[in-house]
Amino acid sequence: MSTLPPPISDQPVLKLSNVESAYGPIKAIRGVSLQVRRGEIATVLGSNGAGKTTILKTISGIIDPRKGSVEFKGQDITARDPAHIVQEGLSHVPEGREVFPLLSVHDNLLMGAFTRSDRDGVAKDIATVYGYFPILKERATQDAGLLSGGQQQMLAISRALMADPDLILLDEPSLGLSPKLTKEIFEIVVRINRERGTTILLVEQNANMALNASDYGYVLENGRIVMEDTCANLREKDDIKEFYLGMKEDGVRGERRWKKKKTWR
Ligand SMILES: Nc1ncnc2c1ncn2[C@@H]1O[C@H](COP(=O)(O)OP(=O)(O)OP(=O)(O)O)[C@@H](O)[C@H]1O
Ligand SMILES: [Mg+2]
Hints:
By secondary structure, the chain is of the alpha/beta class. Helix content is 36%, strand content 25%.
């Protein structure tokens, strides 16, 4: 890619402080604090049930936290209405895409732009997303429910972009996709970040893809952040290599020693 990445500012665009969310008696996240700086791709890595989706739902107002606060662009958005949060410039691509199956691809894109009144800007952004994902242009008039899983993921990302957001929350874009398609989608996500300067918070089980695409990473286990660092540093850590990247150094026993030695409050 020839474009230079936009500068990452020190100013956090998103800040979670001690956020706790639960489903009835089940505490899904337990005091999560994290920041996403303007212009970066940040990632939260974690295995099944770690609480990744819950973090994103809490940010976008789908779940109200029991404790803690969420700040977006310096404003407290804790437990605000999801529609208000979208209006403020935060788009969420949910786990499992959730496109409108009976609407055409084109109409799905227009739904993403419901907060906007600049018709020229909307038309320009539709052209831009068709540039990122040419298959969506070919299928523009087809019902979205007829697209393949990967194409639906492309549409879900594109629909989020249509709101012209400052921040996109991306929930496991690799879910159910082939390695090749996952790679293609991640390349576009990086392009969106570099070309438009859109800040992205990505949650993934696919640590390899996420660490390569992102600038800064958090590791989530059982609802708590247990590690954070630049992705360049995380990629070099033995624990990450062993447990998330599936690379075992010679001499390291096949036990989950890192988890075992941790004690939680
Ligand atoms: N609607 C719900 N009702 C009750 N418990 C839930 C609900 N949704 C999630 N949980 C529980 O909350 C915890 C965190 O779930 P969450 O979906 O946030 O995990 P995740 O990291 O996104 O997992 P995955 O990688 O499988 O998507 C899990 O223990 C899960 O069983
Ligand atoms: Mg999830």
